[in-house]
Structure formats: structure tokens, C-alpha cells
Amino acid sequence: MGELVHFPHKSIRLTDEELAVYWSIKARLEKVVTVNDIRQLQQDVKAFRKHLSVKYGIPL
Fold first, then answer.
1. Residue 14: its pLDDT value, please?
2. Contacts of 19 by beta carbon, 8 Å cutoff, 6+ apart
3. Dist. CA 17–CA 14, nearest whole Å
4. Is residue 30 within 8 Å of 23, Cβ to Cβ?
5. CA distance 13 to 20
6. pLDDT at 39
7. What is the pLDDT along the chain (60 residues), one digit of tens a residue?
8. What pLDDT does 13 receive?
9. Cβ distance 16 to 22 under 8 Å?
10. What is residue 19's DSSP assignment?
């Protein structure tokens, strides 16, 4: 199951699904071209951070 990830406030073990989202976001970050790409990526990162915050109790 997943991989241990260290955050400033807590270390957590992400599920395989969460890791897939994380790596997807990271890969898309390198390919950002337009302002719309940036906005979509920001929305996805915000949603992912909110998910982790709720599930693992990590402060935003």
C-alpha cells in the first residue's frame, strides 16, 4: 500500500490512488503551457490538498 510521504506537520502513507494523483499533478506541472493549464492545475492541487487535509488531519 502506497508510499510514506513526509509533510512539515506529519508523515503519512498515501494510498496507491493518492500517489497516482500526486504523480499526475507533478508530471502536468512540467508541461504547463497556457494560463488555462495553470488554473486547472491550481484547482486540482487545491482539491488534492483539501482531500489530504480532511483524511489525514494535515493543516493547510
1. 85
2. 2, 3
3. 8
4. no
5. 13
6. 95
7. 556 666 666 778 888 899 899 899 989 988 999 999 999 999 999 999 899 889 888 777
8. 84
9. no
10. H
| Residue 31: all three cell numbers together | 508541461
- Show the cell assigned to 8: 512539515
Per-residue CA distances from 52 to 20, 31, 35, 37 (Å): 14, 24, 26, 22
One-character DSSP codes across 22-59? HHHHHHHHHT--SHHHHHHHHHHHHHHHHHHHHHH---
10: left (phi over 0), alpha (psi -120 to 50) or beta: beta
Helix, strand, or coil here: 1?
coil
Q: Do the beta carbons of residue 60 and residue 48 sit within 8 Å?
A: no
Within 10 A of 53 (CB to CB), how many other CB atoms are there?
12
